[in-house]
Amino acid sequence: MKWLIIISCFASVAGLTAAETNQPTAAGAQLERGRYLVERVGMCAECHSPRDDRGEYDRAHWLEGELISFKPDHPMPFAAIAPPIAGLPGYATDAAAVKFLETGTNAAGKQAMAPMPQFRLNHEDALAVVAYLRSLKK
After folding, report:
1. Can the peptide bond before residue 117 be classed as cis, meaning omega within 30 degrees of 0?
2. Which tens digits make up the pLDDT trace of 9-18?
3. Which of 21, 25, 128, 136 is the most buried (most CB within 10 A)?
4. pTM of the shown model
């Protein structure tokens, strides 16, 4: 711990950035949290990413939308397509995307159609998810 403090002080005095001292930046930590939530918790790729002939994700089109290959057992409103979420093209502002992730409703006050889960993320997690998805803009 003592060495970390000394290194941090030296880096500060020398004018080095967090990247140059291998220290994560707040923005970097937020992007990593968002990536974790999108890829490991929400499992967004299951619906929002196409797969190749072997059934593996097509990383060249990561989170760019896909046809939903499963259907419900009984008639109900159900989306046929999972829209692209890389870059959040369906959201003009980060605030609108954060609102959706916190409340489950879009700017028009409507919930997403099944099978999209009605997420209720806390504010910090919603900001992290939005930051990560915006970072995927092509």
Report:
1. no
2. 434 444 544 4
3. 128
4. 0.79
